[in-house]
Every structure is written in structure tokens, then in C-alpha cells.
Amino acid sequence: MKKISRRTFNTTLTLGLGMMVNAPKACAVQKRADKKLGIALVGLGSYSTYQLAPALQETTHCRLAGIVTGTPEKEQKWAEKYNLPKESIYNYDNFDTIAKNDDIDIVYVVLPNSMHADFCIRAAKAGKHVICEKPMAVSVAECDAIIAACKKAGVKLSVGYRLHSEPYTKELMRIVKEKTYGEVRYVAADAAYNSRGNPNQWRLDKALSGGGALMNMGVYSIQSAIYGTGMNPTSVTAQEFSTRPEYFKDTDETITAQFEFPNGAVGNIFTSHNANINRHFSTFDKGWVELNPANNYGPLSGRTSDGKVLEFPHQSQQGLQMDDFSKHIMQGTPNVAPGEMGKRDMIIVEAIYQSIKEDGKKIPLDLGMMGIV
Amino acid sequence: MKKISRRTFNTTLTLGLGMMVNAPKACAVQKRADKKLGIALVGLGSYSTYQLAPALQETTHCRLAGIVTGTPEKEQKWAEKYNLPKESIYNYDNFDTIAKNDDIDIVYVVLPNSMHADFCIRAAKAGKHVICEKPMAVSVAECDAIIAACKKAGVKLSVGYRLHSEPYTKELMRIVKEKTYGEVRYVAADAAYNSRGNPNQWRLDKALSGGGALMNMGVYSIQSAIYGTGMNPTSVTAQEFSTRPEYFKDTDETITAQFEFPNGAVGNIFTSHNANINRHFSTFDKGWVELNPANNYGPLSGRTSDGKVLEFPHQSQQGLQMDDFSKHIMQGTPNVAPGEMGKRDMIIVEAIYQSIKEDGKKIPLDLGMMGIV
After folding, report:
1. Domain ranges within chain A, ordered by starting residue
2. Do A188 and B270 touch (CB under 8 A)?
3. CB environment A349-363: b (16+ within 10 A), e (fewer)
């Protein structure tokens, strides 16, 4: 992905605002319920290329309708591959004119984390519904700005938490909610991979990523600790570990964190760019549920203490996610991963970094039921 | 188990010393290698009753030869059940006369933790080899005293770490040692059970147990974090959680701890008397190994990232453990769980409590290769 400086983006944003005078608002809601909503992908990195675009060939309620890219050579390639009309192909300079494009209902922002806020806000101002890839932003303040912009524009907002639409994860949520195995007492949420590639990738550049393992994989751990207990944590303590500072120049390599939940359950979080692990474990008074893998692109795998092996047919998680959001827009079904959930997780991320900064001090969290689904 | 005050024990110890003048030293080592060593169990609680005594009916290199109990009604019952001669039945007052009993080669101390040191030292002074149930004692100073007493008496000393003789655990150790899946990066070690019974049991009485979940189940987590990486940790941070202070009056309910290992691997420890979990997970550059259950009485169960299901025939873990120690005595095979290992773990226990006391401060550990097998 081509790097674009913050200065360039801010300039673009200012220009964009000037173009927005006659932008239509929430055009999608007027569409017929049987119509597929048009999605424009912003940022054509590997996630858009290998996950989102292919998924959008199989979705029921939405389709790939446009792209926004800073790399000119991708324009033609994608146009041909996905039969995209020329007028639905944008770059970062003319992005805001997307407001005039009735074929685009949803803008999916798949840029590096530090660019999420700018583009989500611009998408909202263009009157488009917004999917913001996880993590929602690089600060709680940015999350607030995105939420406010979407509210003001009257558009729907979702975070790219695809697992809320994923059947193994939904089965875990069901077990937690229905207390199939009784009261939850402990959750272990490990999400990590061993990064040995290009040390200059954007995920390892704090200016673009906002942080390292925690911002990337740790958000999965936070998510699964919460849906694996059905509660928001009331406090967090955290620790950081570093073994390759020459590679992880300014982002966190490994973080552990401990959550307290309202019923006394404890959450144990491990996230790292220095180990391969992808696992969820919830234990209850009368049994346990395990997912391993728990948060890769699937198929996931799971089992329970009474010998059950979870088995669901595999479908693209991203496809299910985008269909869920489209149904939310068209049919009023629940928004399974609203912006408030992304903000809640960013509050926790900031608390974890704060605890680390204060040598593992316990940071109280006042999240209430915010973002619980 | 009948409670015996520290004062009573000290008095008994003093009396005992007076009887020891002509105690034979390390009588077992002179025995023929094909003879079964005689073991006396000290303390006839549930572990002796349901695990050790039955195991000793099937062991190859040792046998149940005597008992030491503070409960007179157990004397006759055990004598009949196990055909024990009257002269091999002791109480806590006459225990030290065991020195004269050539039929007893090993004394296995299965008393509450705070009594381990007294009885291990008395057993050593009586010239008997010693197995000390885990945790070895309630302080590092007591571990030192036990080790010194055994050294002085020329007897062998082992801690009741039965898993070092257990096939699933040994397979994990082999995988770690041979780097079957490459370099280890992370280990999760969860050992906990949900205590809802008598709040006055000795395990929940700090004067007898020395501590709560950490002293009881946490020692398994410490052990498995170490044999699951093949290294001793270089630092530890820890946190304590409490939800039922009325039940856990003066012992820890739940503790999490984080280990750093020399190669940068991280260990994540969870131990509790408020959750059911019994699990080990080691992840390496090229795969992972999981045991679940990992440290109950078995049979254990395990699997690896490449789809292997570990399968070993079930044998009594305690039987294997006591046979291993007997072979060590008679044949000079390695002592797989020496006193130094128990002391190392107590150093870590004390560091964990210290970290908690200092609000999660990182406590450096200088263990070198101590106790690694």
C-alpha cells in the first residue's frame, strides 16, 4: 500500500468538504429491500484484494460497486476483473465526489488505521453508510468523531468485526448468553502471529497503525474476552514484552492484559507479533468452550467440555458480515458491530497502554453495557 | 484431616530428636536392586487414601510398608486393608522411632503444606529417603532447611511432582527439548478448580496451607510453564483477583502471572479456586501442543497443531512417580523431581506474592538452570 502522509490527507479532507454541498443523504435507505447495496472499497491492500472483493462476488444483499485507490495501476486491473464502471473508480483526491454516485450505498474503509477517521468522516459527509475496518481508529477521540459524523449525516456505521456474523463465534455467544454451561468464570483470549517480514510495513509503523500487536491482533482478544463472557470488563491491568526492538521499532511486540468482569470472572489476554496463536477459551461452572483457531479467516474450529465438536459449513466471514450490515440498512435488523463497539474497544486499548505506562497499574473501566450485543 | 497446631509439632520434633541417636542412615541404598522399597505415608487424608495407597498396590519398585497418622481409628482400618504390621504404624508422637524400622526406606510426607518441613526434616534425621508432597513447603527458607537436612543425613529427596513421570507430560517435554515444532514463543498454563465446599478445609487456612490457589493449583501452572518451555523464567509480574472474600478468608482466590523466559518467550499463568480449568498450551514457530486436561490425575489428553492426538495407556501417575524415585535410589537413575526443583518453584511463588504486594511490579528472577530436567 502506498503511504500517504497525514498532511496530504488533511489537505484532501479540506478540499473534500467544499465539494459536499449537494451530497445526497442516506440514499440507500430509500432502495428496494430486494436490491443489492453497492459497496465501494477504500484501499486496495491485501485484505480488500483477497478477502473483501472475492466475498462480494457471493454476497446476497450487497455487491462490489466501486473502488477508491491511490495506486493508478490498480484502477484498470480491478475495473476489468470486477467489471466496474469508470465513474465508480476513485482516487484519494476525488474521493469526495462519491457523494454524487447513486450506485454506491456503503463505503468500506480498509486503509491503515490512522486514516480510518478521515475517510469514515468523509464517507459519512458524502451521505454513504460506513464500514470501518478494525481497529476503528487510533484513539477514542477519533472514534467519537466518526460516530458523530455518521449521526449527523444520518448514515449507518459498522466496524469490520466480521466474527459477529461468523457461525462458530455466534455459537459461542449463544452458549454464553443462554448459560448452557452455567456461570462464566474465566476466559483466555490469545491472538498473535509471528511477524518476520518487511519491518517497514504499515502495521509496524506507529504513525499509520497507532500501535503494534495490540492494535492489530489484540483487538480480537479484547473482542473475544467480551463476547466470551457476555460482559464488559470493569478494570484492566497490562504488561508489555519486547525481544526484537530492532524489528519492532516503535510498535508493541507482545502484550498481556488481565480483565475483571462484573461477576468476578477473569479474562487473560495475550497478543503478540512474535508468536503464532489464535485461540479462545471460556470456562463456566459446568463446562468449557474452546475455539482454535478462533479469529482467523476460517474455517474456525471448536469443541466443548462434553465432547461436542462444533461444525458449521464454511462461508466467507467477510461476506456474512457485509450481508448483515446490508440487512441492517435495508431491513432494520440489528447492527451487530456498531461504531459504539469499536469505540468501547478503543477505550480498552487506551486503558491497556495506560496500564503499561504505569507499570501494570489497575485501570478502572466504566463501560456499562456499552457495545454489548 | 485432624488439625495439629504448630506448637504440638515443634514439641514432637524436639522429642523426636532425642530418639534418633542410633538411627541408621540411608538404609535403602544397601538393598538389593530387585527388592521393593518400603514406603511409609505420613498423613492419611484423601490423597493418601485414594491415590497413593492404591497406587502402591501396583508399583514395581516400591510398596506400602507403613503409615503415620494422627487419627487412631485409621490405624486398624489401614492395617487390615493393607496387611500392615503393627510395628510399622506410627502416630505423630512416636514418628521418630521410624528410624529403627528397616522395613521403611522412604517416608512420603502428605500433610498440610505448613507441616512439610518439620516432617521431611524428621524423616531425613531418621535416615529415611524423603518424598515431600507439593508444594514443597510454605517458604524458600523451609525448602532450604529440608534440602540441608536430607543432604546432612545422606538421604535422597524428591517432591511429589508426579507429572514428571507421566507419559503425556513427558511427551510435551520431549517436543520442547527436541524442538519438534521449532523455537517456543508462548506458553499458557491454567490450573484451577471451583472450590465451593467446607470453607474451613486446611487448603483455605493460611496457617496450614501457606497460601491459596497459588500454593495449591498455581504450582502446577508454574511447573508446566517451565517444562512447557524448557526454561526457567527471568522475571515475573502478577495480579490477584477476589470475588468471595467471605469464603476465601485469608487465602488467595485467583492469581494471574506473567513470566519472561530467556529466549523472549512469554508465559501466561492463571490459577484459581473459583474456576474449573486444567490446561496447558505451548506454541512454537512451527506449531503448538496442547494438554487438556493437563494436570489432573489422568488420563490426560493432548493434541498438536498438525492434527496428532496424543495417546498413551493410563497408569497411576503416583505409581509411576514413586517407582521413578525408587529406581533413582536403587539404580541411580535421574531424580526427575529433586528438592531443588521444589525450592525453585517456591522462589517463584514468593516472587508472585511479592509482585502482587507491589501492585504488579516486575520481580526479576535469578534461577539459572536450577531444577531444570
Report:
1. 6-160, 164-312+339-364
2. yes
3. bbbbbebbeeebebb
Question: Whats the size of chain A, residue-wise?
Answer: 373
Residues of B in contact with A268 (CB under 8 A): 188, 190, 256, 268, 270
Distance of alpha carbon A236 from alpha carbon A367, whole angstroms = 12
Dihedral sign for Cα A29, A32, A38, A39, please.
Answer: positive
- The ipTM (two decimal places) reads 0.87
- The amino acid occupying position B225 is A
Tell me if residue A100 is catalytic.
Answer: no
| Residue B120: half-sphere exposure toward Cβ, Cα within 13 Å | 36
Q: Residues with Cβ < 8 Å from A97, sequence gap 6 or more?
A: A19, A90
Supply the pLDDT for residue A33.
Answer: 52
Position of cell 517432591?
B159
Q: Which amino acid appears at position B368 of this protein?
A: G
Q: What is the CATH number of domain A164-312+339-364?
A: 3.30.360.10
Given 3-state DSSP classes, what are the helix, strand and coil percentages for chain B, each rounded to the nearest 5?
40, 20, 40
Give the span between the Cα atoms of B6 and B20, in whole angstroms.
21
pTM for this predicted structure? 0.90
Q: Give the three cell numbers for residue B259.
A: 513470566
Cα separations in angstroms, B33 against A47, B30, B128, B326, B372: 67, 9, 17, 10, 27
Q: Along chain A (373 residues), what's the average pLDDT of each consecutive run of 10 residues?
A: 40 38 44 80 98 98 98 97 98 97 98 98 98 98 98 98 98 98 98 96 97 98 98 98 96 98 97 97 98 97 97 97 98 97 98 98 90 62
Domain at B163-313+339-364, CATH class: alpha beta
Interchain proximity A272–B243, CB inside 8 Å:
no
Q: Considering only the beta carbons, identify the residue of B243, B264, B274 that sits closest to A274.
A: B264
CB contact under 8 A, A277 and B186: yes
CA-angle at B184, arms to B180 and B186, nearest 5°: 135
Cα B186 to Cα A270: distance, rounded to the nearest angstrom: 9
Buried b (16+ CB within 10 A) or exposed e, B226-245: bbbbbbbbbbbbbbbbebee
The residue type of B172 is L
Which of A241, A246, A263, A361 has the most B C-beta neighbours within 10 Å, making it the best mutation to test the interface with B? A241
| Other Cβ atoms within 10 Å of B140 Cβ, number | 19
Q: Hey, which CATH number is domain B6-160, 3.40.50.2000, 3.40.50.720, 3.30.70.270, 2.130.10.10?
A: 3.40.50.720
Residues B9-20, mean pLDDT to the nearest whole number: 38
State yes or no: pLDDT of B30 exceeds 90: no
A interface residues, B as partner, C-beta within 8 Å: 185-186, 188, 190, 192, 194, 237, 239, 241, 243-244, 254, 256, 258, 260, 263-266, 268, 270, 272, 274-277, 279, 281, 283, 285, 288, 290, 292, 359-362
Q: Which residues of A touch B264 (CB under 8 A)?
A: 241, 243-244, 274
Q: How would you label A52-83 residue by residue, b for 16+ Cβ within 10 Å and e otherwise?
A: bbebbeebebbbbbbbbbbeeebbeebeeebe
Alpha-carbon radius of gyration of chain A: 20
Residue count of chain B, please give it: 373
